[in-house]
Amino acid sequence: MQKLVLTEEQQMLKDAAQGLFGEQAPVSQLRKLRDEKDPLGYVPEFWNQAVELGLAGTLIPESHGGSEFGHVGMGQVMEEGGRTLAASPLFASGVLGACALMLAGNDSQKAILNDIATGSHLTALAIDETGRHQPLRVATRAEPQGSGFVLNGSKTFVVDGHIANTLIVSARTSGGERDESGITLFLVDPKAEGVSVERTIFPDGRNYAKVQLQNVAVDADAVLGEKDQGAGPLQKLLDIGSAHMAAELLGLSSEAFDRTVAYMKERKQFGVYISSFQALQHRAAHMWSELEQVKSMVLKAFMALDADDEQASLLASAAKAKASQVAELVTNEGVQLHGGMGMTDEFDIGLFMKRARPAQLLLGDFRYHADRVASLKGF
Amino acid sequence: MTDLDTFRQETRAWLEENCPQSMRSPFKSDKDACWGGRNFQFQSEDQRLWLERMADKGWTAPDWPTEYGGGGLSREEHKVLLEEMARIQARPPLNSFGVWMIGPAILKFGSEALKQQHLPPIVRGEIRWCQGYSEPGAGSDLAGLQAKAEDKGDHFIVNGQKIWTSYADKADWMFALVRTNPDVKKQEGISLVLFDMETPGVSTRPIKLISGESPFCETFLDNVRVEKDQVVGEIDKGWTIAKYLLTHERSMISGFGSTAAGQKTLAQLAVDAVGLEDGKLADPLLRADIASWTIDSIGHELTSERAKDEAKAGQGVGNVSAMLKLAGTELNKRRYELLVAAFGSEGLLWEGDNRPAGALPQQWLRTKGNSIEGGTSEVQLNIIAKNILGLG
User: Is the Cβ–Cβ distance between B140 and B94 less than 8 Å?
Assistant: First the structure.
């Protein structure tokens, strides 16, 4: 059985990512993007550096210009990005877009992988239609028209939707609104007639969009994978995405925790450091203990994904559930233990809470994944 | 075929031939465990035979050196043995504080003479040990212990009282922490000593617990003579060994929450008790609680595994036993609360032969001690806060 430790190469990638995010995308960068209402939502110079380091192609096969470093490797990058709240197209394109094409794409569709690896092509996954994640509830319809289809419906919470070159859209080609079969994935050009993309603003200042599809005509070769059989690859893609979001949550929670502990050691009240109060020590120790559980679960989920283990779905859901739960705990406690300072915009700690909630909800929160764990375990 | 594969094949064949059929099912109750010792009444000839055969191989202490009767197995071989035993649901041949606790301490800190005297009888299950640590006035503040050992040249005379001594009334020997120097910092005047429970002046009294059972005793030490050659390590340096043993004990207790091979999971037991509706546990809020528990239990098992792998690879923060003990015992308490909830009033039937959940009420109450024994959850939080997070 594979040991639950990083290999030397994975550790090197983690260190390199830590260096890059720390120097080129510190928390102050996100703050600036937010304050300036930056239309792009990320800093192109930083994205270019990440691409140069090969991060965008971490999951992509060498034959398509990637480094094929696997989920454990990419997970380290996601975790380090979480620590600095780095905004970049890495998740939407490097994880979701790349894996969607790898799981379901034909040869000509897979050509996009080369452009994802070079950072020149951005993708966005458009699946949610309601505020709560229910990937198999698809009301968007794709009716046959000529040799292709015509799409109607709306999507929400689409990460990087307004900057994507390609939208990956789930739509129903048969069956009722909640049927597992009958879902088809499409590659849609956001510039096509009938597509409207509206950027929506969230507490984390990151990129999300609402996408409207009104009589959008697509060719037959826009179908990604098999018609009506999209739920299979989609579920696998969501396992992958959930694990990587769990890694980002682990990174941001770890950083919020470290900052909170550091603050406890410098803040004085009643003439002593507040770190000397046992009531606070125990809360910190509890959080640390919880973070250790998340660490193990995230690493194991990535190893299972890399090994195509039959437990991968269970482990990915368990990891996303726990990471979401612990992120909520740690960011809430982080603000509380910073006292009044925690409520100010000037202190960074609040930014971690504001990133955590959307990240928790993205691809399913604690409750969604706990329900899935129960179902997978047969109860 | 690798050496490990060969070992697995040989082990499988040996177990097939030597493990009696009646020893191939999970314990039905705590009473099925074999503890060995001078006065142990074997429940069956099979139980006696199983202990004898495993002890002959040294597999009651698989990773101890063969020169002291152990199995001499590597970590990998030990794991294979446990896996092969789990495959046929073989019962542990021996439950032993000797194997789990004082043996490893003697191996690490004891003199050659102590190793030769004490280790082989532990492996063979001939001597049953108990642990004399806590005192009425020294629980969480263990280093504040007062049992006094007076230096009489070649021996000590010990006076004091120990409490929470597991199975002291059934044990043959005790390993105990005693104060050999009252004039120094409390941690620096403690020694770890060994003595026979038949020594004059040793008496025990069982303590009846909330479960109605009495696994623990008070032990009274009244002018008990302890030979100086029965000190493990150096005189006054016992605290280091005590801490080592506590770490060891914490790792052991942290495993209580895990579901052993062949045992039904919490979710399976709840399904048996409550039933399914549309494939889901019929009570949605109980289902949510059990799902949450299941996630935490996966986390705990993976964290235990990661801690071992990191220790082996020389990575990680080390000293994680406090966290594992804290998480494992809190998890076990939750498990039993959820079992009681799942079985409902039927699960709380205190007596009777055909109770649907067996001795669940007694087991549920027993778990309340998990987060107290071996250092309370609060002490574990203190250890994490001070030693790992540097809060103070």
Answer: no
Among B150, B198, B249, B310, the active-site one is B249
Tell me how far apart the alpha carbons of residues B305 and B146 are, in angstroms, rounded to a whole number. 38
Interchain CB distance below 8 Å, B299 and A322: yes
Pairwise CA distance, residues A194 & A216, whole Å: 5
Quote the CA–CA distance of B251 and A50 in Å, as a whole number: 42
What is the C-alpha to C-alpha distance for residues B35 and A137, in angstroms, rounded to an integer?
57
- Its pTM stands at 0.91
| pLDDT at residue B260 is higher than 70 | no
Distance CA B79, CA A375 (A): 31
Q: Across the interface, which of B287, B295, B389 has its CB nearest the CB of A285?
A: B389
Residue A96, C-beta contacts closer than 8 angstroms, at least 6 positions apart: A123, A124, A125, A159, A168, A237, A240, A241
What is the ipTM metric for this complex? 0.96
Question: CA A211 to CA A188: how far, in whole Å?
Answer: 11
How many Å apart are CA A89 and CA A168, to the nearest integer?
A: 15
**DSSP string covering B11-45, please?**
HHHHHHHHS-GGGSS--SSGGG----STT---S-H
Per-residue pLDDT band at B317 (split at 50, 70, 90): low
Taking phi over 0 as left and psi of -120 to 50 as alpha, with beta for the rest, B62 belongs to: alpha
Which residue would you say has higher pLDDT here, B318 or B217? B217
Distances (CA, A) of A181 to A135, A178, A359: 12, 9, 28
Query: In the annotation, is B330 catalytic?
Result: no
Contacts of B332 (CB under 8 A, 6+ apart): B256, B257, B367, B370
More confident site: B358 or A33:
A33
pLDDT in tens, A200-239: 999 999 999 999 999 999 999 999 999 999 999 999 999 9
User: What is the pLDDT, as a whole number, of residue B32?
Assistant: 87
Residue A281 and residue B385: Cβ atoms within 8 Å?
A: yes
